[in-house]
Structure formats: structure tokens, C-alpha cells
Amino acid sequence: MKIDLHIHTTYSDGMLSPEQIVDTALECGLDVIALTDHDNVLSHKIAYDYAKEKNYKIEIIQGVEINTLYKGYEVHILGYFMDKDNPEFVEMINTQQKARIEQAHKIIKLLNKKEGLKIKFEDIQKLVAPNGSIGRPHIARAITNYGATGNVMEAYAKYINNNSDVYVERQTVSPHDAVEVISEAGGIPVFAHPIDVDIADSLTLELINYGLRGIEAYHRKHSPAAVEHFSSLAEKYGLIVTGGSDFHTPSLNHGTILMGKNFVPDTVYENLLREKKRIDLAE
After folding, report:
1. 103, 185: one domain
2. Cα 138 to Cα 91: distance, rounded to the nearest angstrom
3. What is the rounded distance in angstroms from the CA atom of residue 262 to the CA atom of residue 58?
4. Residues in the chain with pLDDT < 50?
5. Structurally, how many domains does the chain consist of?
6. Which of helix, strand or coil describes residue 93?
7. Which range of residues forms the domain containing residue 124?
8. Are strands 188-191 and 214-219 parallel, antiparallel or unpaired?
9. pLDDT digits over 48-65, tens only?
10. Beta strands 214-219 and 73-80: pairing type?
11. ∠ CA(42), CA(44), CA(48), 5° rounding?
12. Tell me, what's the pLDDT at 256?
């Protein structure tokens, strides 16, 4: 069984539509995928219905990746199998979406005022699927499309970073709240790519008190030593281990990789299903 539990579509900062993700997953020989767009869950039904219509044999899990900030760190919390109609979950998603739109408008205003770049909100909005999550990648692409920079990475370096005069940090929920809401919605909250957070070990212990149930040990950024470390941390605290490619684009540019390329053991999916069954029985 081949598994990838961390995939993005055009409903956040991915470059492929949900349908294209399904086709690509099958081409890569994947049996199980999870669509984990940033701060929204719109892509799952589209992908699921498409696979059903085509009679494709692939398991598509409802997932999400909530972007949070904590003590200067960007902490991402994955969620699997939650009830997407749960009122608290819906409120959290709406809060995150509102903050993303507000951030984009503030950056646009500063780009106009300080840099003379007449970028419009519509220039950014058209780069994401309808009602999808607008983020820094879309703003950087809009700046590049405007002609202000030669490429997206230059846009990041010049405008879309914390040291830029035109960058405005997005308001977010805390990782603790994200974990708690996903858990209360019957889902499995997982600490995503913890290698990015220097305080990951201590934060994991904090988040367990709010309902954290897993750690993403298998990730394209994780060396074998990191995989071992976070797998051991999961075992120490009785958490499940998950993994995925964090797929965004078929291109190998900018650090992205092919879907399903990194190894994820079969047991990851089995343990995820077992944990969901345990949660459902406990309710």
C-alpha cells in the first residue's frame, strides 16, 4: 500500500485541481491520499466525487492544515476525519479565511502606497480556486505577474517576508485552539512537519493537553534522524505517527517534490483508522 497524507490543491497553495490530484496520485501508484489544504476543506468532495464517477480505486481522506502562529513560530496543525460541519470547526475555518483576506488587503494597500505597485485584490484572488485560501504564495505570484519581480522567490525576498516594510503578519488561531477544535469535531489533530519548530518537543507536550493525537514524522524535510526522533517522541507520549509529501506542484523547483515520493509505512494508515475508530467509540 502506498500512502500520502499531506497534499495541497488549488484550493490553497497547490498548483493542481482536486481532479488533477486524483489523476496524479493514481499515476504515482498511490492507494490512499489525504487532501490537506490550508484552512479549508473544499477540495475533498470534488476529488471524492470525481474518483467515484470515474470508478477509481483510491481512498481519499478528508483533511485540513491549519496555519497558526505561536511565540514567533509558524506552527501547522493537520486534521483528519473531523466533522467539517461541526459549528466550532466551521467558525475556526471562517476566522482563518477572514484573516487571510484582511492580510492580503493590507499588503496590497502598502504595496500601492510605499512601492507604487497597483496590484488589485482580484489579481490575487484569481490565482486560487473559488473560496480557496489566499496566502503569501498567491501574493508573491501576483507581484511577479505585475512585473515587479522576475520570479516568485524574488517577490518573497523583496516583499513577502517579516522584514519587509509592506508585509503584514496574518492573525491566526493558536495551535492549542486548532488542536482542540479539530479534536472536538471528532478529528485527529497532528503536529505537521515539526522539524520547522525549534520548540517542537516541548510544544508537543503542551498540545497533548489540548487533544493532540499525532506527529507527522514522515515528511520531505525530515532526515532519517528526524524521522527517528519524532517517531520516538510519538511513542513516548502515546501518539500516532503520520506522514506525507506535503505536495504542492509537479515541479521540482523551490524545494517541492513529487507526490508520494517519500516513504510512509502501511501502518501509518492502519493506525490512523484505528485511532478514528477509538474516537468514535468514545463519543
Report:
1. no
2. 24
3. 18
4. 253-256
5. 2
6. helix
7. 93-158
8. parallel
9. 999 999 999 999 999 999
10. unpaired
11. 140
12. 43
